[in-house]
Structures are given as C-alpha cells and as structure tokens.
Amino acid sequence: MALSSPYPDVEIPNVSVPEFVLAAGREKPDAPALIDGLKGDVITHGQLAQYVDRVAANLHARGLRKGDVVAVFCPNTPWFPVVFHGIAAAGCVMSPINSLYTPDEIAFQLKDSGAKILITIGLFLDRATAAAEKSPVDEIVVLDGAEGHANLFDLLGADAPSVQVDIDPANDLVTLPYSSGTTGLPKGVMLTHRNLVANVAQCLPLLKTGADERIIAVLPFFHIYGLTVLMNQGLALGGAVVTLPRFDLEDFLRTIQDQKITRAFVAPPILLALAKHPAVDQYDLSSLTSITSGAAPLDEQLALAAQNRLRKGADDGVTVAQGYGMTELSPVSHTSPDPSALPPGVTEVPKGSVGFAIPNTECRLIDPGTGEDAAEGERGELWVRGPQVMKGYLNNPDATAGTLDSDGWLHTGDVAIVDANGCYTVVDRVKELIKYKGYQVAPAELEAVLINHPEIADAAVIGVPEKESGEELPKAFVVRAPGSEITEDAVMAYMAEKVAPHKKIRFVEFIEQVPKSAAGKILRKDLKARA
C-alpha cells in the first residue's frame, strides 16, 4: 500500500537547475549569496549570475557541449557553486569527486563517467595529475592557478559569447555523483535537472524561512547532501551560503557566531561535538534557529543533549532534528519540518525519527521476508517513489534494475517503521553499506583491495559500532596466505595507502575461513555475531 506525504503536492517547475536555484537572487542582486567563512570574501547574487554565465560561455568555447561530463575535485569554496551552475548552464554534467579520494579512486571515476575536463585546486593537483595519467582527460583546470594549467580567471573570461542551451529538465542529466547504492562498487547516479529542482521545491514548504537566512556549509558540496540541501536550497531561498573547506570545530563555532548563522545542516559527529566539547560554551550561537542532521543515523539522546545544551535552559531556541535520504533520491525523501510547519494535528516530531515524507513523495514498507507490504505498525524495507528518484545508474542496467523497479519504486535497503501521524523512524539496514561520518563505505570495494595483497588469501569486511558515537567502523576479517605472518598493523597500513581516510580498516581479525553461502555470498551476519 502506498503511503502519501501528509503535505500537499507542490508544483515542480519545468526549468533547469540554474534557472530555478538562482531565481530568488535576481530580486536582490546586491545581497550576499556566497561568503567564505574563513576569509570573509563575498559573492553577491548579482555577481553569481554573471559568473555562471561566464563559466558556461568559456566551457562552451573550450569545445564542451551538452551532455559532456566535467569532473570537479575541490573542497567547499564560494567558487564551487559558481562552477557547478556554470557547468549546468552549459548543458554539461558535473561529476563531483570526494576530496579524500586517492589517485586510483579518482581515476576510476574519471574513466567510468567519461569526464572530459577535471577542475581542481593546487593542493589537490598531485592526486589529480596522477589520476589523469591513468584515466586521461582533455584538460585539468586549476582554479587557484598552477603553471601550465588554465585557472579560474580563464573560466570567467569576458570574450566568449554567452550560450543558451536547450535543456530538457526531465531527461537531461545535471550531476553524476558516485554512490555505492545498496551494494557493490561505486556507481554513477544519474540525476536530472528535474530531480534536483524537484527536491529543492519539495523541501522548501517544510522550512519557515526569512529573506535573511544564513546557512553554514561545512558538509562537502561533493556529497549530494551538501550539493542539494546546503548549496542549492540555500541559494534558492535567496539567502547566504557561508562556506568552510573542512570541519574544524573552532572555525565552525566562530563562523556561526561572526556570520550570525541561522540554519545548519550537519552529520551526527558534528552534533556529538556540539553536545560534549567544552569549546562550545565560548561562543555565542544564539542566532541558530535550526540544526538538521542527515547522512547517518542520529541517536535520540544525542539530539536532545545537543538541543538542550544550545538552548541553555530556555524553553525555545534552536531545534535539533533529523532527515533521511540517499544519493539516489537527490537526496531527500523525509525530513523533520520546522516547528511552525508541522502537519495538521501534529504537535512534535520524535527526536529519534527522520520526520515525514516530503511533498510529492510516496512510500511503502515491505516485509523483507515475504516481499509484501508490512502489516500496520510493523517495520519493513522503505521504498520511495517521487520526482526526486534518480534516472538510474550510469551504464549499469543490472544495478539499476536491482534498486529501481518497473513501477518507479526505489528500494532503499533501509528498514523503517511509521507511526499513526506518518512520522518515520529508520531502525535497521537491509543493505551491507557501512556508514562512517556520513560517508558510504562499500565492503565489497575494501575486500577487493585487501585480496590484492599477496599475503592475503581471502577477506571480508563489516561495520562494527563505536561505543560512544555509534559510528560504524570498518573491520576486516582476513585469511592469511599460506606461509604468511602478516600482522594487523601491516594490513591497516596497506589499506591506508590504498583508500581514502574514511574507508580505512580500523580493526583486523585473522580467521581460518570466510563464512560463505553455497552460492559464494559472504555471510556477514555470522561475522557480525563474532565481532
């Protein structure tokens, strides 16, 4: 049985992402749109529109055409949104690359996406160059400049004529982030202009915002959560998006205080710091009205601890809440609304829940054992259908069919329960993904790296919870090759050289044999039982 959102459907404009997201700013061209949280540099809404036009024109002048992929390997700066919207306005597809990726991981994405240009910064140029040697691109653009490379000023040049590209929002891709989906190696998630426009339009009614909204953007724009919820939603509000290149608690707190941040979208590790770190008391965070957590499960007690501390005994003030989504959902399907935007008859959202299905979104809860709809009040795998659901996985029809069925239902792999008010709580996971600090870590990917070691005969990886934070940490079960005496430290050091920091193996246990089914599937439940 399909369960509808308690909110009425909203109209989804049939326009490109830049047309929709930048519209509010046209009414206030002199107001700040993007602010560098460390340096204080400002790009106004009027400047943003001009810069986007220039990037689109200069990409076109470089020979790029509609549908071409431009990879962006860059931390959060005020120029990231300029580059993203310039790529989108040119009719091209932006494929964001995780800032922590190794050359091998970058090369895989460049090759799989078919990227023609790689845009990066000087600090990342060594990894970008090493990756491009393995998976060549036509050009590497270094935004802050490097000898022999085009830079930001080349993308903003005045000579190239403006371009008008005919975009079909429902079918033309705008971004190609990489996700592990429910299982397996990273896959390109095909998201259209309509997907991203829809997701921002769907979320706005649940936010009671003012014209002077200021959003802190510390979660990375290369992650779909940062790209849609922080960057595009913030700009669509006509407010200011204040960027930080990475999470540093002192910088984060100082920026909230100095920039009078009103709204923060974070992941649970940041809330852990807000709840417990002594430095929090040294800053004035009273401008904050809302903190929404996503990307990983948020413990109810942690949410309450952070909220109570920030309120400092007052009955009102900042609200700490939670949302839910995945890359394949652009990413939001559920969120907790502002207190003044609750559905009729609802007085509060339970802290452990992810809130309500957003407008234009249908859900089903499916009993994993029977494949039928779960009984009322019972848990089941969450399926989602709506305009935010991806087009599919790039060049991977089998993986697409395994996640997105013929009726348009996206099978999330997460187990949820819904209460009488239509409020959802995610309680478990069908899928095997490990979620560490909001990042997806695919066991299959780590296993593939492990078994390439000459002294490892077989391996399996699971996530094990850390007691204090509840974060999952990757643990490897390793079968030594005959005659090998490889140690735990050697395994962890090997992996640290091969994968991004969030994918590192944190624990190693040596076993005689990896438990597997008759079909060869690793029996992770057996490993979890002994972990």
TrEMBL record:
InterPro entries: AMP-bd_C, AMP-bd_C_sf, AMP-binding_CS, AMP-dep_synth/lig_dom, ANL_N_sf. It holds the Pfam family AMP-binding. Gene3D superfamilies: 3.30.300.30, N-terminal domain of ligase-like. Keywords: ATP-binding, Ligase, Nucleotide-binding. The keyword ATP-binding applies. GO terms for molecular function: ATP binding; CoA-ligase activity. Residues 25-394 form the AMP-dependent synthetase/ligase domain. Residues 445-521 form the AMP-binding enzyme C-terminal domain. The keyword Ligase applies. Belongs to the ATP-dependent AMP-binding enzyme family. PANTHER family: AMP-BINDING DOMAIN-CONTAINING PROTEIN-RELATED, LONG-CHAIN-FATTY-ACID--COA LIGASE. This is Acyl-CoA synthetase (AMP-forming)/AMP-acid ligase II. It comes from Blastococcus xanthinilyticus.
